[in-house]
Amino acid sequence: MPKQMYALEPGGPKQLEISWKGAWKDITIKFDDQVIGTLSGQKELKVGQQFTLPDGSALSVQLVQKLFSVELQVLRNGQPLPGSSSDPESRLKNAYGMVFFVAGLNLVLGVLAMLFQIEFLQALGIGLFSIIFGVVFLLLGFFVRRRSSIALILAIAIFALDGILGLVSSATNGVDPGVGGLLARVILIIPMIQGVPAIRDLRRRDAAM
User: Fold this and answer.
1) CATH code of the domain made up of 3-86
2) Are 26 and 49 in contact (CB under 8 A)?
């Protein structure tokens, strides 16, 4: 049975548990192992439901379907719980995690292609450029981790431009780029895009403290 645990405050104990069966069926919400609410399935969850926590605060739970992703929003008095998918800290981690992933993938494949002269990888254009690309993304990842929106926007722009140039090159050479590759790029770039407003929200939150 899948489940998620959440703390009510940053660094606090994870007292809230949301568990479900299969494709969002029989959802149970517990606080300190005490059931505070249940939902039968996706229909109720997509509409969104509100429950009352022991301290009197309002807990909202909703399944939000977005482009290429499904997000479980867990809010307390209208604010995302730490570690939830809509928490700006979580979105920032996902953003720089994807930047580092792209960096690592390009570095590993580039080094393998050059060291072992792997014809299949070289035929895909993987080599020295991939290593340079990986180093650039590695540097951008460190700046994104430090909440640089400029670095993140630059990473998004470079990644998108690289994809567009790849499509143009494939079309010019009469090669089918394949749906899988395009879908993979979309999946990788979405968390990066979501990281831009997350950085803005974190800065606004820090300024208000």
Assistant:
1) 2.40.128
2) no
